[in-house]
């Protein structure tokens, strides 16, 4: 079972395929080890999965346009959790950029020593866990931050501070790691002050500066030093407040097994900025409004990828902020350098092309920002983000939108429609923002069986097989496998014609060694496999893969001599597109799950 190009047109491809039998056998051996032959024989997708298309799901959506569409946020509990998740994500978003700068700091974190947990056993640090009661690293903070496991930004800030304070606790002053942690802590506090908009010029936090042995903690000559009765609480209180510590007297934290740490205040100077103060954002899209759900202004999307089609650049990406030239239909882009060297008639265009000449190109600047769509309530005119309100413009008319507060009596109808759904949810668990383990849908009061969800899509033998294999990869986390759904959302027969210029310049070798023309039409079966996971009671598409299966039933032109055999192109798979997002949980299983989807599909192809 080998991955090949869709149409092997030239003889070298056939020779290459037969010249490496050892490599192919190694792939088969690896696949046999992961997926047993008994499991493969159970999947007969050609007889159990008739051709389908996404258009069938679109037809179900179109039929509901005439009826009342039930918004999932009509459930009060689901709306409460959804709004809390939106505000938590907006609250944690600034910390992501700060954490990225800390993990890639070129001076004090060059080798990434703060990005991974400290392996005390491998480094021979026998007293590490005695001195450091709560190990923490920036990599763990990043995983929790991207997985929305923090309930507030204060928890994330506390873990970042703990990472550097731990390094200062274990390593004595003047040690390179101690000094690097100190500088990174100051760097983080200054960046965090700019995000929070703190107006104070400076403040102090308590940091460890020295360690005393057991016999020196209560020496009669020096007298007992002030002790921290609750070290963790005192540290968090001093770090969280933006006021200087009272006095410069050192504080002592006793360590289990003897000894103590001495803490002194560290002044964090405010980094002055020469930039003018930021003005409130206002544009034609938001008009100065703030979404009442996420409490944010414009939500900017990632800019579209544009590449230069000129000869000199060879498909290089157009940098942001640069000038470029684009055709009226938007299919061709040229940077300023390639535009200067263009001929009056654009190369590679037909006579009927609307943008045939160089003078027809439009000059643009690559600084466009695409914002999330705003919709206004038809009654109170309050503007919200369409994605925050879970508004589907293909189902509901934007001009008839009513916010949840104005929906009034309709809300009771929608909730009753949700709760009266006869088919219960198959996956009764969901991840909730601020928690690292799945919870039952019933425990948070979510309405089961929303109008349109991933479980309403039809199943097939391939989706059942892949989902069973993926579920085994997630057994380490209880009930995590019950939050996922695998579906084949598109399964249809397709074909495309081989251009005449290709058929004239390429030949194909038959089994008898005779060369023939390539087929005039190539038939294949196109499939789209997706992985959904429940977050806050809603299905999110996490992974998507488009594949093309070729069975060799191509159309050849007549005129072949009798006795010639056509080349075998059966059981060829072309993986056309793979994409995923970072929201999959648990994060440590993400790579293994994605690999399992690919391997499990190849076992059925």
Strand-helix topology:
Blueprint: H1 11-19, H2 21-34, H3 37-42, H4 45-48, H5 54-63, H6 76-103, H7 120-123, H8 128-131, H9 138-146, H10 153-170, H11 176-196, E1 202-212, H12 231-240, E2 251-254, E3 260-269, E4 323-326, E5 333-335, H13 336-340, E6 362-365, E7 374-376, E8 383-385, H14 404-407, H15 409-419, E9 429-430, E10 439-440, H16 461-473, E11 484-497, H17 500-505, E12 508-509, E13 515-516, E14 521-535, E15 538-550, E16 572-580, H18 590-604
Antiparallel strand pairs: 1-3, 2-3, 4-5, 4-6, 7-8, 9-10, 11-14, 12-13, 14-15, 15-16
Task: Describe the overall structure.
The structure is a single chain. The protein is α+β, with helices and mostly antiparallel strands and 605 residues long. It has 18 helices and 16 strands. The strands form six sheets. It has a four-stranded antiparallel β-sheet, with helices on one face. The protein is globular, with a radius of gyration of 31 Å. The N terminus is likely disordered.
């Amino acid at each position: 079972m080998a991955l090949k190009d869709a149409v092997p047109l030239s003889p070298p491809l056939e020779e290459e395929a037969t010249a490496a039998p050892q490599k192919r056998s190694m792939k088969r051996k690896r696949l046999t080890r992961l997926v047993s032959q008994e499991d493969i024989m159970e999947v007969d997708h050609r007889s159990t999965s008739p051709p389908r298309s996404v258009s069938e799901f679109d037809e179900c959506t179109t039929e509901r346009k005439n009826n009342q569409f039930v918004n999932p946020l009509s459930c009060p509990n689901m709306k409460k959790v959804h709004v809390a998740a939106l505000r938590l994500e907006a609250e944690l978003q600034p910390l992501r950029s700060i954490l990225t700068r800390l993990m890639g700091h070129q001076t004090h974190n060059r080798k990434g020593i703060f990005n991974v947990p400290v392996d005390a056993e491998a480094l021979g640090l026998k007293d590490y866990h005695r001195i450091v009661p709560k190990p923490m690293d920036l990599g763990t903070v990043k995983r929790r931050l991207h997985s929305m496991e923090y309930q507030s930004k204060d928890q994330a800030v506390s873990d970042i501070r703990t990472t550097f304070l731990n390094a200062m606790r274990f390593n004595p002053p003047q040690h390179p790691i101690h000094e690097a942690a100190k500088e990174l802590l100051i760097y983080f506090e200054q960046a965090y002050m700019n995000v929070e908009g703190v107006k104070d010029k400076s403040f102090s936090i308590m940091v460890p500066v020295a360690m005393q042995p057991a016999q020196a903690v209560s020496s009669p000559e020096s007298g007992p030093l002030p002790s921290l009765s609750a070290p963790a609480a005192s540290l968090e209180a001093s770090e969280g407040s933006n006021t200087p510590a009272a006095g410069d007297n050192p504080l002592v934290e006793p360590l289990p097994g003897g000894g103590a740490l001495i803490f002194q205040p560290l002044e964090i100077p405010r980094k002055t900025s020469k930039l003018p103060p930021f003005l409130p954002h206002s544009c034609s899209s938001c008009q100065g409004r703030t979404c009442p759900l996420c409490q944010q202004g414009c939500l900017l999307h990632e800019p579209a990828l544009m590449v230069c089609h000129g000869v000199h650049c060879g498909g290089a990406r157009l940098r942001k902020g640069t000038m470029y030239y684009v055709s009226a239909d938007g299919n061709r882009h040229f940077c300023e350098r390639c535009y200067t060297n263009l001929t009056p008639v654009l190369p590679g265009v037909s006579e009927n092309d609307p943008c045939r000449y160089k003078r027809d190109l439009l000059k643009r600047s690559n600084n466009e920002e695409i914002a999330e769509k705003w919709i206004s309530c038809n009654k109170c005119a309050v503007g919200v983000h369409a994605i925050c309100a879970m508004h589907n413009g293909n189902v509901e008319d934007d001009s008839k939108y009513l916010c949840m507060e104005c929906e009034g009596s309709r809300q009771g109808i929608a909730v009753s429609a949700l709760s009266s759904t006869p088919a219960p949810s198959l996956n009764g668990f969901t991840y909730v923002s601020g928690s690292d383990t799945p919870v039952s849908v019933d425990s948070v009061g979510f309405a089961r069986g929303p109008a349109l969800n991933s479980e309403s899509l039809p199943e097939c033998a391939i989706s059942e097989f892949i989902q069973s294999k993926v579920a085994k990869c997630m057994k380490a986390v209880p009930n995590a496998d019950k939050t996922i759904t695998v579906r084949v959302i598109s399964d249809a027969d397709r074909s495309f014609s081989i251009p005449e210029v290709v058929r004239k310049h390429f030949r194909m070798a038959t089994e008898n060694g005779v060369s023939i023309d390539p087929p005039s039409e190539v038939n294949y079966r196109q499939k789209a496999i997706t992985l959904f996971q429940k977050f806050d009671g809603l299905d999110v598409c996490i992974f998507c893969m488009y594949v093309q299966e070729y069975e060799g039933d191509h159309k050849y032109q007549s005129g072949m001599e009798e006795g010639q055999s056509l080349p075998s192109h059966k059981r060829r798979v072309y993986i056309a597109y793979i994409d995923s997002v970072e929201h999959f949980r648990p994060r440590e299983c993400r790579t293994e799950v994605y690999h399992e989807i690919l391997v499990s599909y190849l076992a059925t192809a």
